[in-house]
Amino acid sequence: MNDIPDGRRIQSDEILLDIIEQMERDGTVGVSELADRVGRSKSTVHAHLVSLAHRGYVVNDGGQYRLGLRFLDIGVRVRERIDLYHVAAPKLEEMAIQSKGNTRCLVEENGLGTFIAGATGKHSVSTDARVGTQMPLHCISGGKAILAHLPKRNVRSIIDRYGLEKRTDNTITDIERLFETLEQIRSDGFALNLGESADGIHAVGAPVLNERGGVIGAISVSGAANRLPVERCRGEIADLVIATANEIELDLTYAESR
User: Fold this and answer.
1) Which of 142, 173, 229, 246 has its CB surrounded by the most CB atoms within 10 Å?
2) Distance CA 191, CA 212 (A)
């Protein structure tokens, strides 16, 4: 887990990030509307927008502002520095063909899970788990696979910060039950998500570990519950995900030794 540094926060940075995050939610927005939504003066918001536009992070379309593709360039460059992405991406394509479902690679950063790669199978369904999305770890299969291999104190720290949000009636919201589930995941070698993040969606995840047993990330297969019933999740799909995670671990170890 990446620790969040304590210390004094800079107000102007906080305002700038509020503006960026609000624009991500709104799409295209005017200055007055944006100022109202972030609770700042129009002049303050406009000054930030001018600076962002000057650096290419915002586009001004006749007084309406939207985020620019400079953010995409930065995100792609950041992902390119992650060894796991390069090794996992082609294997996710293979898993998608074999499982016919959605496949994803997930890493933990600052206590949340971020999907860094994915592939779409023949019978895939639309979910929130698109590449770049951040999600709570406790309600997704890859996230639980990661939590199961973090120190218990780190898991508690994550829960203290983010809580155990109830996404569906099946989401685990009790900390003791979560720890019992994580123990079972360590024993089984895989994690299940049976409608815990979205109704009607099942998923199976497995951790990707380094040579010392530390968790690097996780991979998963997901799909509609009728196509991924529990018995298939525990059998064929679990075997596929575990085998693929093992291949990724070996490839990463080999790449590091060269």
Assistant:
1) 142
2) 21
Please choose, from the candidates 135, 142, 84, the residue with its C-alpha nearest in 3D space to the C-alpha of residue 110: 135
CA distance 34 to 147: 37
Q: Return the C-alpha torsion angle 42, 46, 47, 51, nearest 10.
A: 160
- Of 137, 89, 136, 99, residue with least CA distance to 221: 99
- State residue 122's pLDDT score: 83
201 exposed, middle or buried (CB, 10 Å; 0-12, 13-18, 19+)?
A: buried
For the chain, residues with pLDDT lower than 50 are: none
Q: Between the CA of residue 175 and those of 159, 188, 233, what are the distances in Å?
A: 8, 20, 24
Position 5 scores a pLDDT of 56
Q: What is the pLDDT of residue 3?
A: 56
Domain containing residue 37: 11-73
Exposure pattern of 30-53 as b/e (b: 16+ CB <10 Å)?
Answer: ebeebbebbebeeeebbebbeebe
The C-alpha angle with vertex 218 and arms to 159 and 118, in degrees rounded to 5, equals: 115
Kindly state whether residue 221 falls inside one of the protein's structural domains: yes
Give the total number of structural domains in the chain.
2
Residue corresponding to tokens 């624009």? 23
The pLDDT value given to residue 255: 72
Q: What is the value of pTM for the model shown? A: 0.88
